[in-house]
């Protein structure tokens, strides 16, 4: 059962910056940024057994951008 209470929203921001040696050095400094937002809930199957679950999987990816180094 879903526990009563306020609405919970999980917002994760991440940034991956590439640092590559050798022939892929031209990509070094490029980055990918993502923003993931979803509604979550606390559930309890049995006493003392709390779980965090995703309520809505349809809109997980809020947006992303790719930044390539010049040149």
From TrEMBL:
Residues annotated as signal peptide: none
Gene3D superfamilies named among the record's database cross-references: Bactericidal permeability-increasing protein, domain 1
Domain of life: Eukaryota
PANTHER family: BPI FOLD-CONTAINING FAMILY B MEMBER 4, BPI FOLD-CONTAINING FAMILY B MEMBER 4-RELATED
Full protein name: BPIB4 protein
Organism: Cochlearius cochlearius
Species lineage: Eukaryota, Metazoa, Chordata, Craniata, Vertebrata
Name of the encoding gene: Bpifb4_0
């Amino acid at each position: 059962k879903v526990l009563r209470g306020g609405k919970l929203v999980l917002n994760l921001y991440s940034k991956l910056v590439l640092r590559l040696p050798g022939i892929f050095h031209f990509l070094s400094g490029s980055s990918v940024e993502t923003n993931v937002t979803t509604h979550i809930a606390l559930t309890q199957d049995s006493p003392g057994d709390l779980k965090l679950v995703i309520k809505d999987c349809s809109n997980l990816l809020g947006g992303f951008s790719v930044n390539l180094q010049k040149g």
